[in-house]
Amino acid sequence: MGKTILQIVVVAAIVVSSSSTALAIGQCPAIGQSTSCSILITIKPNGSLTFQTDPSVRPFDGIEDVLVGVTNQSGATVFGISLTGSDIFGFDGDGVGTFIGNQGPTGYEGPGTSFSPINANRGTVNFTNGLDDTRFIWFSLEGAPTQVRLSQRVTIDPGHGSNCGAVHQAVGAVGVTDYPASSPPAGKLKEDKLTVAVAIQLNSRLQNEGFDVHLTKS
Q1: Distance between CA atoms of 190 and 180, rounded to whole angstroms?
Q2: CB 180 within 8 A of CB 186
Q3: Which of 64-68, 153-157, 199-203, 214-218 has the lowest mean pLDDT?
């Protein structure tokens, strides 16, 4: 039986609660001064997410850095979550990799995770091979997130590369108007240039809105 895949979901509800006991004993490793994850995110069957914190767990660097655990109870495979919080992606080099060896390029990844930051305050945590139902995964951040939602992934396919003629591929339609040397570029407007230019602008706008965007060509 094929597994259900949950890829794009609208903004999910967030439930915040506190607990004085460890949230994910036996799942989050003890790293630095953290005995476990201080934050546990649970993905529910309706696409909502609960967000629990355990104030008894210290930051693993003794200052601010936190371990975050995610458990999937949605009944589907999830490929990422989007997080917002003050400077949580402002990685300064003292992530979990300092204690257990780097799991990724930033030193803050946990096993099977990667980051797509939009800025220091917002970004996406990707689950490299997908997080199957009932499974658990963890990672670290520079601080506690204040908002969480399922990742919304958008793929943009411009249809042409940006310089098709140079690789002996069709450039698509060519306009009839000769433009001066300003904007757009001088000469007749070519479809390959136009589609990529539109895709790049759309990519920027969607990323600013918190979407995880993938361009097939640029």
Answers
A1: 14
A2: yes
A3: 214-218
Domain boundary among 151, 179, 206: 151
- Residues 156-173 as b/e (b if ≥16 CB within 10 A, e otherwise) read bebebbbebeeeeeeeee
Q: Who's near 26: CB < 8 A, 6+ residues apart?
A: none
Q: Do the Cβ atoms of 26 and 101 come closer than 8 Å?
A: no
Residues 140 and 199 in one domain: no
Does 123 lie in the same domain as 92? yes
Residue 13 belongs to domain spanning: 5-151
| Domain count within the chain | 2
Angstrom distances, CA of residue 87 to CA of 8, 74, 113:
25, 29, 19
Name the residue among 64, 60, 68 with its Cα closest to residue 90.
64
Same domain, 164 and 142: no
pLDDT tens, residue by residue, 84-138:
999 999 999 999 999 999 999 999 999 999 998 889 999 999 999 899 999 999 9
Q: Tokens standing for 197?
A: 């230019």
| Cα–Cα distance, 127 to 113 (Å, whole number) | 5
Choose one of 98, 126, 151: the last residue of a domain: 151
pTM: 0.67
> Phi first, then psi: what are they for 202, rounded to 5°?
-65, -40
The verdict on 169 and 147 lying in the same domain is no
Give the model's pLDDT for residue 151: 73
